[in-house]
Amino acid sequence: MYREAAKIKTGTDVIVQIKSCVTSNDFEARKIVSRSIIPQTIIPLFHLTFAAHLKNGKMTPKTPEQSKTIMTDLVLPSETNPLNNLFGGELLARMDRAASIAARRHSRRIVVTASVNHVAFNRSIPLGSVVTVEAKVSRAFKTSMEVFIDVWIEDRESGLRDKANEAIYTFVAVDETGRPIQVPEITPETKLEKERFVAALRRKQLSLVLAGKMKPNEATELKALFQ
Q1: Cα–Cα distances in Å, from 98 out to 29, 87, 132, 137, 155?
Q2: SS3 assignment, position 146
Q3: Can you tell me the distance from the alpha carbon of 221 to that of 139, in angstroms, rounded to the nearest whole number?
Q4: Quick one: angle between helices 42-53 and 26-35, nearest 10?
Q5: Which stretches of the chain score pLDDT less than 50?
Q6: Quick one: CA dihedral 181, 186, 192, 198, positive or negative?
Q7: DSSP string spanning 102-116?
Q8: Closest C-alpha to 64, from 180, 200, 205
Q9: Each residue of 119-134: b (16+ CB within 10 Å) or e?
Q10: b/e string for 1-26 if b means 16 or more Cβ within 10 A?
Q11: Please, are residues 205 and 222 in contact by the beta-carbon 8 Å criterion?
Q12: Of 7, 74, 112, 147, which has the highest C-beta tally within 10 A?
């Protein structure tokens, strides 16, 4: 829809309005369209595209697999410390790139890193290693997404993989003006995806309590752990 709309000279303000309301509710979307000066050829196209994002008035949920991102690369000499192991900062950057792609695949929006919630450097990664970073959206909230990242090292001879590290990043989807925007929900499928989905809500509640944005007695998922 965006490519088609961009070809029609209707003015930048109108195009921005159309883009911004694709993930808002239907009432607001129709209100924006009705008060905008838009050629009649765009309106049907807009509503068809908007409908594709919605199901029964809500955005169509996606699965973690749809956001899955895999990045494989070597550890080069310039990326290692004096012990010839991969710099922690280099690994963080690789995880951030993979996670941002996963978040963008889920939301189909511009995404920004909001926080790094957890990083575990369980194993050093030596020079010359083949490193694979796998990222999936584990849970989506209103405008934010938790992305779980697994890091694997591949054995040169056998090809078998060992888990080296893991991390959890949080991203926020934004529109062209930098304002947070709604993202689709997640429907987990596998046992691991379901476990991470449930745990994501506990992590979010914990972060809100620590930030003073939620009262401890309102953190129902956290309370359930001790009952």
Answers
A1: 32, 17, 10, 11, 22
A2: strand
A3: 15
A4: 170
A5: 1-38, 40, 42-43, 45-52, 56
A6: positive
A7: HHHHHH-SEEEEEEE
A8: 200
A9: eebeebbeeebbbbbb
A10: beeebeeeebeeebbebbbbbbbeee
A11: yes
A12: 147
Predicted confidence at residue 227, as pLDDT, reads 66
Closest listed residue to residue 181, CA positions, set 109, 77, 115: 109
Element housing 171 (H / E) = strand 161-174
User: β-strands 110-121, 144-154: how paired?
Assistant: unpaired
Among 179, 65, 59, which residue's Cα sits nearest to residue 112?
Answer: 179
Hey, what's the torsion of the CAs at 104, 106, 108, 114, to 10 degrees?
-40
Structure tokens belonging to residue 74: 């070597």
Please classify residue 103 by burial: count the beta carbons closer than 10 Å to its beta carbon, then call 0-12 exposed, 13-18 middle and 19+ buried: buried
Evaluate whether 168 touches 203 at the Cβ level (below 8 Å).
yes
- CA distance linking residue 201 with residue 197, whole number of Å: 7
Please state the pTM of the whole predicted model: 0.72
Candidates 20, 3, 2, 17; CA nearest to 181 is 20
Distance, C-alpha 145 to centroid of its chain: 5
Rounded Cα distance between 200 and 55, Å, is: 24
Give first-to-last CA distance, the chain, whole Å. 50
